[in-house]
Amino acid sequence: MTKVKICGLRTNADVVAVNEAKPELAGFVFAPSKRQITAKQALFLRQNMNEDIQTVGVFVNPTLEQVLPLLKSDIIQLVQLHGQQNQMLITKLQQAGAKVIQTIQTDAKLVTKPDYVMYDGRKPGSGNVIDWQRINQLEQPLFLAGGLTPANVVQAIAIVKPDFVDVSSGVETDGHKDATKIIQFTRRAHYARNEIRN
């Protein structure tokens, strides 16, 4: 079964929708973005979220000092890194008990050793679909992001066969998370392999 990450949660309504849909992961954006939230907001959302759903902190070129307090307070369990690849940071985060997701583009080489690799577009969260045919299978478990929606996620899984699919703008309506789309996306991704076989 392909696992699901719903990214860019900002409100308690978002958490209610995610609790109903039951994806494996939920993402909090701490990098500059229209979806950026504070540690205090993330703590509130985490406290209202189903314990079975792990949370991911999304960062662009962070310092260790920016990330560690969120890990130590259990606001997040995984760290998603955008920007320059930094093995020293990855190693220190792993030593602190975090699983690390390194985001790269389809034309980039992986030069670090994260726990997971995410293929995404040059402007994460923009809703632009990346070229699924250009994705390389690596040693690490693979996240597929970039323009996924309830309408195309089954096709994306059939072509790429990722371990995880990641969505943000694809489950929004007018810039806000849409509970119906979150549920549709999660269920279609979870049952995609069955749909492909039929």
From TrEMBL:
InterPro entries recorded: Aldolase_TIM, PRAI_dom, RibuloseP-bd_barrel, TrpF_fam
Pathway linked to the protein: Amino-acid biosynthesis; L-tryptophan biosynthesis; L-tryptophan from chorismate: step 3/5
Domain of life: Bacteria
Domain N-(5'phosphoribosyl) anthranilate isomerase (PRAI): 4-186
Keyword Transferase: no
A molecular-function term among this protein's GO annotations: isomerase activity
Pfam families in the cross-refs: PRAI
Keywords: Amino-acid biosynthesis, Aromatic amino acid biosynthesis, Isomerase, Tryptophan biosynthesis
EC number of this enzyme: 5.3.1.24
Reaction(s) this enzyme catalyzes, per UniProt: N-(5-phospho-beta-D-ribosyl)anthranilate = 1-(2-carboxyphenylamino)-1-deoxy-D-ribulose 5-phosphate
Primary enzyme class: isomerase
Family that this chain belongs to: Belongs to the TrpF family.
Annotated protein name in UniProt: N-(5'-phosphoribosyl)anthranilate isomerase
Species in which this protein is naturally found: Paucilactobacillus hokkaidonensis
Top-level taxonomy: Bacteria, Bacillati, Bacillota, Bacilli, Lactobacillales
